[in-house]
Amino acid sequence: MGKYIYTILVIIVLLPISKISNYSELISPAISLLLGLLFAIIFKNPYPRFNKKTSKYLLQVAIVGYGFTMNLHESLKSGADGMTFTLISVIGVMLIGVALGYWLHVDRKTAYLLASGTAICGGSAIAAVGPVIKANDNEMAVSLGVIFLLNALALFIFPPLGHIMNMSETQFGTWAAIAIHDTSSVVGASDSYGDVALQTATLVKLTRALWIIPLAVVTMFAFKDNSSKISIPWFIFIFIAAILINTYIPLPTILTSNVAYWAKKGMALTLFMIGASLSIKNIKSVGIKPLVLAVLLWILIGLSSLIVVINTIS
Questions:
Q1: Neighbour tally for 159: CB within 10 Å
Q2: Most buried of 8, 62, 74, 184 (most Cβ within 10 A)?
Q3: Distance between CA 270 and CA 173 in Å, rounded?
Q4: DSSP 286
Q5: Number of neighbouring beta carbons within 10 Å of residue 95
Q6: What is the pLDDT of residues 189-246, one digit of tens each?
Q7: What percent of the residues of the chain are helix, what percent strand, and what percent coil, each to the nearest 5?
Q8: Residue 68: what pLDDT?
């Protein structure tokens, strides 16, 4: 039964919007994630390995697709202020996260994973750093479970908060890229806010994601294990190449518009698969202390970045 319902929901998410009035507003990123969450709770996930692998690569393809709709000069202008704050926030969150973890008596590796996920790009940073510090399955599951919960919450609350505070699209895109953990939720939240917000958020977030590389190197020395491997997010460089192509090579409008359309569809399907991958067992195994640590770090980065964005970006 679950497999059939899963297939039907995938088809619904991917249905064309041109022939159905207001369909694009109905199946928003948040709704896609909600459908996945509801499916996981009611039917459980019939394709755990497929969901995990497909959502990972589908997210990367969707982001590269967005690159073909962006102009390098306009994007750099929009995201410059966010990039400046990135350096300070990444280092600050890592130091405070480790200190708070020690104070709350959270396992050292779990605290480090949560700080990494909050500082850079959620599950991607955790997946990259985990093997370096030789985190076990439970430590990885707890960290990913906490980050997943906060990501799902962010996708629903950030756009309304942005509208309440009358944030411009550039302000919101920068704030979302810094304060929301995973790239999928950043893109989903900013996409619902506007095209400029989406472009700004994507650029700032992927620039932030590049910090995975130096973080992994520093982590090897911090945990004294030079045999660990570093997982480099190569798709980010393809995303940059897509922006360069769209900036300096005249592409037909019909091509870029179709790429943008399917990139949005790909992101919606990614969020559905992420939601459908929810594991109640993993959520129950989280525990209160790691959750408290993650929420405190999230509040810290959310409020500090909000203050900076509102006061420095118009």
A1: 24
A2: 184
A3: 20
A4: S
A5: 12
A6: 898 898 889 888 888 887 777 777 788 778 877 776 556 566 666 777 887 888 889 8
A7: 80, 0, 20
A8: 83
Dihedral of CA atoms 144, 146, 149, 154 in degrees, nearest 10, equals -100
Among 206, 269, 267, 213, smallest CA distance to 235 is for 206
Contact 276, 40 (CB under 8 A): yes
Tally of helices (H runs) and strands (E runs) in the chain = 16, 0
Written as six digits, the tokens of 122 are: 């959620």
Strands (DSSP E) contained in 93-207 are: none
Chunked in runs of 10, what are the mean pLDDT values of the chain (314 residues)? 78 61 51 78 78 79 78 63 71 92 90 90 76 75 79 88 93 91 84 86 79 79 65 72 86 83 79 75 71 92 90 81
Q: Print the SS3 string covering 34-97.
A: HHHHHHHHHHCCCCHHHHHHHHHHHHHHHHHHHHCCCCHHHHHHHHHHHHHHHHHHHHHHHHHH
Angle between helices 212-222 and 123-133 (to 10 degrees): 30
Q: Distance between terminal CA atoms of the chain?
A: 51
- Residue-level pLDDT at 167: 94
* Distance, CA of 85 to CA of 175 (rounded, Å): 10
Contact predicate 58/273, CB 8 Å? yes
Other Cβ atoms within 10 Å of 231 Cβ, number: 16
What's the confidence (pLDDT) of residue 23?
Answer: 41
Residue with tokens 């000069």, as numbered in its chain: 73
What is the C-alpha radius of gyration for the chain, rounded to an integer number of angstroms?
A: 19
Q: Which residue from 217, 170, 212 is spatially nearest to 193, judged by alpha carbons? A: 170
The residue count for the chain = 314
